[in-house]
Write a structure and sequence with these properties.
The complex is a heterodimer. Helices cover 65% and strands 0% of the residues of chain A. Chain A contains six helices and no strands. Chain B is globular, with a radius of gyration of 19 Å. By secondary structure, chain B is mostly helical. Classes of the chains: A mainly alpha, B mainly alpha.
């Protein structure tokens, strides 16, 4: 299944910033998203920034990546250019409107 | 026992109608399709359609009975179809299979509903009508139970994900709890309708046997409570959820 625009941008940036191939980069990010309770198809750039700050460094270290800070900042730069217009609304956004 | 069941169902019906109308009004302001779909689900099926079909037998003339039955069934089909579409659009919006599956379910529901109405129009013998509609009612409930199983799975899956997001500050406790309540209401409705369906299949009068009567009463009561807490949570409940969340958030830091 295709990922959201933010996820795809982060995957490409991770591939460029490390020696990981496409599938290793996607897998590493997917594991981080699973830890954070997020899905590749609907994750937004804002959510990914939180994951990059709180979860991804641990995954990168376990994957043998050295300078995790530099990699994370490259990913954040890549997310700044992501166009999220037309992205599907997540179930959490819908449910936040339904109550009250 | 039958009286208790009736009171619980009346409570569920009234709650559904209020919640459904509020959600439809909200959809008018927000222009949101999900609010409209779930509002229609509760207002049309359990709020109006179900009571119409139940009270149809007590109408003063046969024409009025048939009219109430036809309108009631149409509203039930409309509401249940909106329910399937809500699951598809909200939980599986990017999956290619979700809307066609919801549409297929809606088609089956419409055929079953039409068959029930035709059976009522064909004869005045209630025993014969009951016999003729049994298979259609079972098929209708099977689709509904499948939809409720879908609701339960999605609700619980999202609840688990939201719990993880809470730790990172990516979710609110009230919204997280809403998914839990959604999952519970799916599970309860699944059990309630599953029991009714099993007894219908066995040829038992579900209004006279204590097990389906209890399932309907208890299911109606719990579902009504879930509806209120999900869509119209009282202020004390919201405060309680936020207070409950605080110690865990601190522990996670």
């Amino acid at each position: 299944m295709a990922g959201s625009a933010a996820f795809e941008a982060a995957c490409s940036a991770l591939e460029r910033a490390t020696k990981m191939d496409r599938w290793a980069a996607r897998g590493t990010l997917q594991l981080s998203l699973m830890d954070a309770g997020l899905e590749t198809g609907s994750v937004s750039a804002k959510q990914l920034r939180v994951v990059i700050g709180a979860v991804l460094p641990r995954q990168l270290k376990s994957a043998g990546v050295g300078d995790t800070n530099a990699v994370c900042s490259q990913l954040e730069q890549a997310l700044a250019a992501v166009d999220e217009s037309g992205a599907a609304e997540g179930a959490d956004a819908v449910f936040s409107r339904l109550g009250g | 026992m039958a009286e208790i069941s009736l009171v619980c169902l009346a409570l569920y019906t009234a709650t559904s109608l209020v919640v459904g109308i509020r959600l439809i009004m909200r959809s008018y302001r927000s222009r949101g399709l999900p609010e409209f779909l779930i509002g229609c689900t509760y207002a049309a099926s359990s709020g109006l359609g179900y009571p119409l079909t139940v009270t149809a037998a007590f109408m003063p003339s046969r024409a009025a009975t048939l009219g109430a039955m036809a309108i009631g069934e149409a509203l039930i089909v409309l509401g249940c179809s909106c329910f399937l579409l809500f699951n598809a659009k909200v939980f599986r919006s990017t999956a290619r299979w979700s809307v066609p599956v919801a549409a297929l379910g809606s088609l089956i529901l419409a055929v079953c509903g039409a068959a029930v109405v035709v059976a009522f129009f064909s004869t005045t013998d209630i025993a014969l009508v009951t016999e003729r509609i049994r298979v259609w009612t079972v098929l209708f409930l099977l689709v509904l139970v499948a939809g409720q199983a879908w609701t339960a799975v999605e609700g619980m899956r999202h609840y688990r994900m939201m719990q993880r997001r809470l730790v990172l500050g990516l979710a609110e406790p009230v919204v997280t709890n809403r998914f839990l309540l959604w999952g519970i209401s799916g599970l309860v409705s699944l059990t309630w309708n599953g029991v009714v369906n099993a007894y219908l299949l066995a040829g038992v009068n579900i209004n006279a046997h204590p097990v389906p009567v209890f399932a309907i009463s208890f299911g109606g009561l719990v579902t009504a409570a879930c509806l209120v807490l999900t869509f119209m949570p009282p202020a004390w409940y919201v405060r309680w959820l936020e207070r409950e969340r605080d110690p865990r958030a601190l522990a996670a830091v």
